[in-house]
Q: What sequence folds into this?
């Protein structure tokens, strides 16, 4: 009986939260909407990320991508929303958006900015696993640039899956665990170009596409698409690639 109790207690104490990671991003709360600040790469990614989201979400839910508010009526959850850089455009496209983040300062910054913009977004300081325990589900779940920052990846992926409605869609974007990703995503981005604070990423926590796909498939998802996100130094911009997934990539999966 004692062994069972200890096992149960250990299970209940599992968490995806990495305190050091949360503190680092919370320290940047005031910079989320500074397009030339330490989070500049996220703003540079935004056009390509939104283009990818529009394409995949419209295809899954039978919407016209050319529509002014193509996401009207869809309930969308943005996990690891930070200051709302993706949540706000999703709301403008007509979605009913919930944004969650484990950093309280990030959520305060997101709420303040949304209010200034006249947007209604349900921001919550919580984790994917805690929200999943409420049994809430969404038509679309996004987890962008968050996978490489969580602890207990299996728990995180399981929680994300539970948050998706049947016939719903989940979209990840993250960094591939390749030598090229180490050179460009850490050495170049953090130490040479100083795009991000040194220590933002840990190459050992980068995730290969197969390491995302397998657990999702076991949980009843079908992989809809895997595409790369590529930086062009000549144009100082990002674009979606169907072939180059060596550094950044998207993975979209539908819940069967």
A:
């Amino acid at each position: 009986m004692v062994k069972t109790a200890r096992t149960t207690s250990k299970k209940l104490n599992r968490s995806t939260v990495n305190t050091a990671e949360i503190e680092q991003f919370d320290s940047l709360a005031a910079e989320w909407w500074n397009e030339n600040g330490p989070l500049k790469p996220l703003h540079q990614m935004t056009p390509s990320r939104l283009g990818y989201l529009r394409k995949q979400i419209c295809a899954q839910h039978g919407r016209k991508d050319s529509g002014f508010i193509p996401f009207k009526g869809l309930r969308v959850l943005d996990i690891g929303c930070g200051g709302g850089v993706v949540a706000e455009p999703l709301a403008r496209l007509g979605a009913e958006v919930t944004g969650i983040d484990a950093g309280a300062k990030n959520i305060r910054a997101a709420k303040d900015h949304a209010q200034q913009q006249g947007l209604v977004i349900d921001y919550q300081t919580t984790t994917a696993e805690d929200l999943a325990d409420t049994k809430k589900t969404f038509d679309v779940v996004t987890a962008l640039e968050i996978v490489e920052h969580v602890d207990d990846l299996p728990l995180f992926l399981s929680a994300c899956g539970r948050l998706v409605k049947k016939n719903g869609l989940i979209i990840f974007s993250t960094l591939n665990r390749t030598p090229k990703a180490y050179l460009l995503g850490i050495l170049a981005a953090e130490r040479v170009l100083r795009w991000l604070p040194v220590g933002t990423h840990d190459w050992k926590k980068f995730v290969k596409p197969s390491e995302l796909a397998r657990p999702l498939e076991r949980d009843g998802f079908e992989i809809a698409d895997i595409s790369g996100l590529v930086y062009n130094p000549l144009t100082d911009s990002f674009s979606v690639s169907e072939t180059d997934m060596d550094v950044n990539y998207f993975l979209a999966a539908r819940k069967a």
About this structure: Strands lie at 75-79, 96-101, 122-125, 138-144, 164-175, 221-232, 237-241, 248-255. The domain at 34-172+213-255 is CATH 3.40.50.150 (Rossmann fold).
